[in-house]
Amino acid sequence: MIFELEYDHLIESGVPLDIDDLRLGVSRGYIAPRTAIAVATAAVSAGSDDVTVNALARMSDHHVADVRDALGAVDPQDALLEPATSARKWLYFQLRAAHALRSRLDDPLGAVESIYADFGYPPTAAPFVRYMPAQPGEQPGVGQLFARWANYLQREQVALTTESGRALRAWFVIESDEFDVAWISAHMKRDSVLTPPAASMSWTDESRASASWAIELRWPEEMHPGGEGLDLALAGLGWSFAERAGALAARGCRTELRMQQELSRNPWTTGMGLSRGAVEWLRVAGASLALAQQVEAVSIADQDEDPRGGVLGASIIIRSDAETLAHITQTVGQEPDKGYERGSVRSPGRHARTTTSWCLDVHLPAHSRPGAEGLSRAVEALDDALAAGAAQLAHKDAVVSLDLYQDLSDDRHSHGVYLSSRAIRWLANAGAEIDIDQYVHGHVIHGVLEEIDLAHARIVTPEQLDLEMAAERKRNEERWAR
Hints:
Helix content is 42%, strand content 17%. The protein contains 19 helices and eleven strands. The protein has helices spanning 7-13, 19-28, 33-45, 51-57, 64-71, 84-100, 108-118, 142-160, 181-188, 225-237, 239-250, 276-284, 325-332, 370-380, 384-394, 421-429, 448-452, 454-457, 462-481, and strands at 169-176, 211-216, 254-263, 269-274, 287-295, 310-320, 338-340, 356-361, 399-408, 416-419, 432-440. The longest helix is centred in the C-terminal third of the chain and has 20 residues, at 462-481. Mean pLDDT is 78; it is low at 198-207, 264-269, 295-310, 410-414 and 441-465.
């Protein structure tokens, strides 16, 4: 089964298309020549100077043969699934179209199987193919197949909406005014492979050190860059690496997980997270965390809450499948700002909640840059007894997290998150993970998430969703245990 995709379907996703993508799309019949012309016309309007793109943009819908010649398109049976990046994009588009039309298809999972075969049985689609066995930690059933299909679409959109296919770049950086790069390399038993991005966190008040040592973190392309990909990259460095870095931090060096992210002008949401194991790794390394973004041409005209953007919400949240709200409160020694019991109902007709949730708002100091020193100071000021109680609950399988909500604007102070090494230490002592949700000028993702309608597409109950999240956390724990 092949879906011929319209221009709007492609553009709504925010996934960029180049000449290789258009050649494969026209050759395999995923798009008509007129759609290739429309994509090329939009690219020229956005400033593309590619010769072939400009030639396509000058053609009319009647020049079908000319379009194919300009692209070097071949017949479908002769079109190889190359290059791999182009094949990945068209697999995503085909599965996205099938998902959008699932209510009209007699057998939507049959459509998945047909697309799976047409693309040479790619492993990224196997988890939601009906006849493939469930992997360890995956729940069986049709509802879970739809859930994994929806999750794939979410992850792929995030991975493909930047030019490089990586929504995030990350480095581990060591800076010193006392030791040179050669000495740091000898101590870390690894050479610095590059100069770290200059002043990535220039909106903190710390000056640049005289010596900067850095390595770039890598993860498989199919992984969510700000989630399991980043976790895997840190775990791959190992605990001995973290301990060597921590020894340098104790001698006055600055160690930091430094990240940069480029967000498109299309309104969409992104985010990142670090598991409990990753936060503990940063504590051992004595490291701070710095996440900086560049946002293209974002308007703040519709931002009513705070024209500066920045971190608009920060909370410590404890979720438990077994404990009561009263028991959590007693254990941490502090009343929550918000909370609800497992089994309570949000509103009439809705499913009962499957977890107890305890939430403490983290209040940012006045007159501080919200994503930078304001957030760090707020976390550092939290009670140590709260951390000890939270850690006790985390050891009993509760999930403790620092949840951040950030609305990005033109104001450069809104373009990042900074957690000092002291703030990281408090979070690690609390057994906490970090979850950051970011929104470009107050909008959620357009395109795939709007079409998916998560509540319906997942065909999932809260119980099933909790099982899925628990399986992901178990995989993270096993990764760090190794």
